[in-house]
Write a structure and sequence with these properties.
single chain, alpha+beta, 5-stranded mixed sheet, 4-stranded mixed sheet, 20 helices, about 40% helix
């Protein structure tokens, strides 16, 4: 160690033991500083403490695997990402077995860790379900703590439960006999039955059973490959394989690209009629009836491999005519955010020419108008084409197609906004010169930062905006290319799906899952050491194709014709009830649906402001009456000038004839 005094340094030798102690204390301080970030309420596990551990484990309806760790332990810090990944991988197993953590370095937890005999960190303990006596649990002391090993240990521990101890909501994991399986062939049933046929030491079947325990409409069983008669009858040549029995009585092998747990589970979750269980009973898929409305919303068949222009245009309509309407005047940072958003959309929107022309006209008007404050009514006038510019039109009706939900309050606008954002990032990557001369060129984060500010400023769900801002602060500054921008938004969308899966806002017929699913992009999915991995290079190419202009379907889009002659556009006073048929109703108990809706207090959701006399026209201070008078005076002036012109011309001719004398 060296000491410096007045600029001169000299070597100071310290005993080796003192150097070791100082290094150890420094490491402990660093570990302690990082400890607060080990586990948080946002992780898919339970954070336990001295006052909740015994109560949680006593007579629990599920089994538990608890990690006792110390926040100053370097290995615990290094292992925390694996534990979080395991918790996310098996979060749908929580009706059978749950994961928990307890920090023994926290002074409040000293006594409970001592009572449970925790001496080393991390220590992993299994606790059985329905235990009514004090139990310190069963310790796992193996050196292999990789994710796949721990997941398989959870399965094995579950199977060690007796019939009396078995978690009440957990399906049985024992294999079915060939006689039971063959007896179901050709039989009609109320739901699907999937049979996973595998080797005796395979865990795939049991893991798929646990993956699907929170879903209804399908029952998963497993059978062993040692049942030769079963393999022969079902025509199975390779293991593991999956055999599907349909409710109609049809049956056959499941067609999956890869015989892996993730592919089997994803295939079953996407079957028609298979949906996540919810506390509230889900309505039947198909035409849904709006609460308080006597008109049924007609279900539209759609292709999941397509993006629909109707969703993009409906999202723009809702954004410009409904969500933005809660801001009566735009000024300052709000106005700048809106200008940047319109700039990005006008330059990159992969839509019909009539919509692009409207967006470009709106952009030109915003840029050329030297005003620090712009009233929303002026923007609405232009969006509704009050100037009657030819070939400029944006539908004023909601037509959800790929974003339609099984109930009116599900999916809809948030889905279309995500779709619009993905399409914009892809268009920016495909056309890197599109934002030239806008002030946003040569910035790979330009589109994402514009979305970020729009969501923070205008999006009605404040909780959603807060989560999006947290994700942006976490890693948006790491985006260095347009390709990374496309992948960043995709990762964050999947992160949101993972967080909201199973929530009240999750549509049971379209459950939030990791996207793209294997049936859309098999090459995007890989597996290593039992852990599902993404091939991001394949994902990027898939996103570029999926959100590309060539894959956007015009089906269900409304006519490009504007309002009929003699009308100023839609009668918003009469149209309020019509739009209530299509705009999703808001569930007050669901924060994700708390959107800013115009007219919510004055007669229902989705009611537009009626144009009133005296409203400024395009922000220039003229009313509709003023503009009409200007036109009338202009016409009268033209007539007066023409009359005077002909009067003086005739007078001049008469004067020339009168004074014209022939000379000799």
């Amino acid at each position: 160690m060296a000491t410096c005094v007045s600029g001169s340094c000299s070597a100071l030798r310290l005993p080796a033991w003192l150097v070791a102690v100082i290094s150890f204390l420094g490491a402990c301080i660093l570990c302690r500083a990082q400890a607060t970030r080990l586990y948080s309420a946002g992780d898919p596990l339970t954070i336990l403490a001295s006052d909740s551990l015994k109560e949680t484990l006593h007579n629990s309806s599920t089994a538990w695997l608890v990690e006792f760790y110390s926040s100053w332990c370097g290995h615990c810090i290094q292992y925390s990402p694996t534990w979080k990944a395991l918790a996310g991988d098996v979060k749908d197993w929580d009706q059978g077995i749950k994961l928990g953590v307890l920090d023994c370095a926290f002074e409040k937890n000293f006594d409970i860790c001592k009572e449970f005999g925790i001496h080393f960190y991390p220590t992993f303990r299994f606790f059985k379900a329905h235990s009514t006596t004090f139990d310190v649990g069963k310790t796992y002391g193996g050196a292999d703590r990789e994710l796949q090993t721990m997941r398989q240990l959870m399965v094995s521990f579950l199977q060690n439960h007796s019939r009396e101890e078995w978690p009440s909501k957990c399906p049985q994991l024992e294999p079915s006999g060939s006689a039971d399986v063959l007896a179901q062939l050709g039989q009609k049933a109320e739901e699907y039955t999937a049979i996973i046929i595998e080797e005796e030491d395979s865990y795939v079947g049991r893991e798929v059973i646990l993956d699907l325990m929170k879903y209804e409409g399908v029952t998963v069983k497993r059978a062993l490959g040692s049942e030769k008669l079963l393999l022969e009858k079902l025509g199975i040549a390779a293991l593991p394989s999956a055999y599907l029995l349909e409710p109609s009585g049809k049956h056959g092998l499941m067609n999956v690209e890869k015989r892996l747990r993730f592919f089997f589970s994803s295939y079953l979750k996407l079957l028609p009629g298979v949906r996540r269980k919810q506390a509230l009973s889900a309505r039947a898929l198909g035409p849904a009836r709006m609460s308080g409305s006597a008109v049924a919303v007609v279900w539209k068949d759609f292709d999941k491999s397509k993006v629909y222009m109707a969703d993009l245009e409906s999202g723009l309509h809702y954004l410009l005519r409904v969500e933005l309407a809660s801001h009566q005047t735009l000024e300052g940072e709000e106005l700048k955010t809106f200008k940047d958003f319109v700039t990005v959309v006008a330059k990159l929107f992969p839509g019909r020419q009539s919509v692009v022309k409207l967006l470009e006209t709106l952009l030109e008007w915003l840029v050329s108008l030297p005003l620090e404050r712009i009233p929303y009514d002026a923007i609405l006038d232009l969006v509704n084409n009050k100037m009657r510019i030819s070939g400029m039109f944006l539908s004023d009706q909601l037509q959800w197609v790929g974003c339609q939900g099984s109930r009116p309050e599900l999916r809809g606008y948030p889905c279309s906004l995500w779709t619009l954002f993905h399409a914009l990032t892809v268009q920016a990557a495909q056309r890197p010169d599109a934002l030239a001369n806008t002030g946003l060129e040569e910035d790979p984060q330009a589109v994402l930062q514009t979305m970020r500010r729009y969501v923070h400023t205008f999006f009605g769900c404040q909780e959603c905006g807060r989560h999006f801002e947290e994700m942006a602060k976490e890693s948006l500054d790491q985006v260095k290319s347009l390709q990374e921008a496309v992948l960043w938004l995709w990762r964050k969308h999947n992160q949101v799906n993972n967080r909201l899966a199973g929530a009240l806002s999750d549509d049971p017929h379209f459950p939030k899952t990791q996207w793209p699913t294997p049936n859309l992009c098999p090459a995007c999915h890989e597996e290593k050491d039992g852990l599902h991995l993404w091939n991001e290079e394949k994902v990027f190419h898939f996103l570029m194709d999926y959100y590309g202009a060539a894959n956007i379907s015009p089906k269900y889009t409304l006519s490009q014709e504007g309002p009929a002659p003699g009308r100023d556009g839609p009668s918003y006073k009469d149209k309020g009830q019509q739009d209530q048929q299509d705009i999703p109703t808001t569930n007050p108990s669901d924060p994700s649906n708390q959107r800013s809706l115009v007219g919510q207090e004055q007669g229902g959701i989705g009611v537009y402001k009626e144009a009133k006399p005296g409203v400024t026209f395009l922000g220039l201070g003229f009313s509709n009456i003023d503009m009409s008078l200007c036109v009338l005076l202009y016409a009268a002036s033209c007539v007066f000038i023409m009359v005077m012109f002909f009067f003086f011309r005739m007078r001049s001719r008469r004067w020339k004839i009168k004074h014209n004398r022939p000379y000799v």
